[in-house]
Amino acid sequence: xxxxxxxxxxxxxxxxxxxxxxxxxxxxxxxxxxxxxxxxxxxxxxxxxxxxxxxxxxxxxxxxxxxxxxxxxxxxxxxxxxxxxxxxxxxxxxxxxxxxxxxxxxxxxxxxxxxxxxxxxxxxxxxxxxxxxxxxxxxxxxxxxxxxxxxxxxxxxxxxxxxxxxxxxxxxxxxxxxxxxxxxxxxxxxxxxxxxxxxxxxxxxxxxxxxxxxxxxxxxxxxxxxxxxxxxxxxxxxxxxxxxxxxxxxxxxxxxxxxxxxxxxxxxxxxxxxxxxxxxxxxxxxxxxxxxxxxxxxxxxxxxxxxxxxxxxxxxx
Amino acid sequence: xxxxxxxxxxxxxxxxxxxxxxxxxxxxxxxxxxxxxxxxxxxxxxxxxxxxxxxxxxxxxxxxxxxxxxxxxxxxxxxxxxxxxxxxxxxxxxxxxxxxxxxxxxxxxxxxxxxxxxxxxxxxxxxxxxxxxxxxxxxxxxxxxxxxxxxxxxxxxxxxxxxxxxxxxxxxxxxxxxxxxxxxxxxxxxxxxxxxxxxxxxxxxxxxxxxxxxxxxxxxxxxxxxxxxxxxxxxxxxxxxxxxxxxxxxxxxxxxxxxxxxxxxxxxxxxxxxxxxxxxxxxxxxxxxxxxxxxxxxxxxxxxxxxxxxxxxxxxxxxxxxxxxxxxxxxxxxxxxxxxxx
Lengths: 317, 342
What we know:
CATH topology of chain A: Rossmann fold
Number of helices of chain A: 11
Shape of chain A: globular
Radius of gyration of chain B: 21 Å
CATH superfamily of the largest domain in chain B: Thiamin diphosphate (ThDP)-binding fold, Pyr/PP domains
CATH superfamily of chain A: Thiamin diphosphate (ThDP)-binding fold, Pyr/PP domains
Strand order of the largest sheet of chain A: 2-3-1-4-5-9-8
Largest sheet of chain A: 7 strands, mixed
CATH class of chain A: Alpha Beta
Oligomer: heterodimer
Structural class of chain A: alpha/beta
Largest sheet of chain B: 7 strands, mixed
Helix content of chain B: 25-40%
Strand order of the largest sheet of chain B: 3-2-4-5-7-6-12
Low-confidence stretches of chain B: none
């Protein structure tokens, strides 16, 4: 087992977790506004998937995309400043938590109307194929997307035109506050991929290595054969839909059960079992992540707000 | 001097696309029936043969899907032309236009350009009933981030479409189904009409009649009738609603002191309402009469031809409004001529 890889994944997941804890705190202090959708508990999905991609592969994500942004860019300052609505934020304070963009790193959002970005991801993959470039597009979305028309149209076109895109369904069991069994007539979202047609795989989304391996396989296939792939990652969000949601629609027992497979703890145990690092060393990595997040918070606090005179900029090119 | 070339509106639009696609390999055309069927309205006739399936792409009936594919492709540098068979069908893709295309540049703080043209016919044709007869320009012009273009002649069709394709913003380009066969002189080759510049289609001094798309022809017909009564109406073709050529509008109205807006589409919260607000805000003291608007009646489009004619603006409604505004009497109706059957 590659020690550097495992420790790298651990540090990234720790950064995501600490980042969001700090964001929630800043929200409770009134320093972050709007909607804040936390990814806590799902970190293995984004981190595992994005670690399997080349830096030139594209990422298209939803409004719950802090971890995707961090996994791709490592830029905690830019993300935190964006949440603070500051000019130094990665979207200049015009986007907020739901619209994190970094064109240079091919982080293409940050889309907040459920489903609409699925055809967009197909379009990015279409462009790669059109130009005969070998880049693959990763498209992340939740289980709640699986009933949207845009989801089906995006998959239909990707299947029809054999586009190099990997669809990654982050099945966290709830479409906002409604459990999957009340919104989805099938047990697994993945079965929906069959008809388009595209291959699919169901993965334990709380196991970062399993996630990484599945996505690596899917990306390779997409790159080599220009074919879409569908991955359903079973996972769970430990917090509410947004910070405004106390999550009363689920039992403590259920939450407890899922928290036992906390992806960061699972990875920590594996790392220790393999004698790659000790508990103390992992704590040190955690402290490192905390320090990076603290730096990002301080950066965001200090950063200037956007100049009101610029409010009309970037409506048009 | 070369012979003036006469093309139909659809040929002029096709010429714009063909010339641009030959110039720039990043441009492609995508939509329902654009390829093998040669276009539902034959605008893209022959383009598949010319450019092949890679660049002239037939889609399933999945507007939100292929409009979204266009947005994604434009985000990373291609220049898609997305054809809606009619703009009525764009409503199922409104999420892509309004939530995504119009917002991307702003919410990413200018990190992306979105050079994409959505085009197709809009407005009423003949007896197509409520779901196929909508003039939706007001809806899209409401949205900052979109540009909205509506040509009225073959020459403008070519020149504006070329400008739209070269523009780095999402463009709503609304053609008119009943104008596709309209003929007119069209310059050969490089003929680009800049977006945001209105055009006086007929000069006049007594009243400004403002219109766009096929209502320009209704306005011209009204102006012709009025000329016979000694009223010189100016017909101003806005050509683009966003960006709006505010200066041309205000200058013309300030000069004629009177204004009638002819708008296909519903009156409530329509373009005419916006234009009149603008005129009242900025050139009130120049007005000799309250501005008027001639619009669709405020109902869904009925199927029956006689009812449809009731709903749509007509040259007669325009001339009546102008005469009233100028205090001219209605011309007395001549008695029916025996033998014509009318």
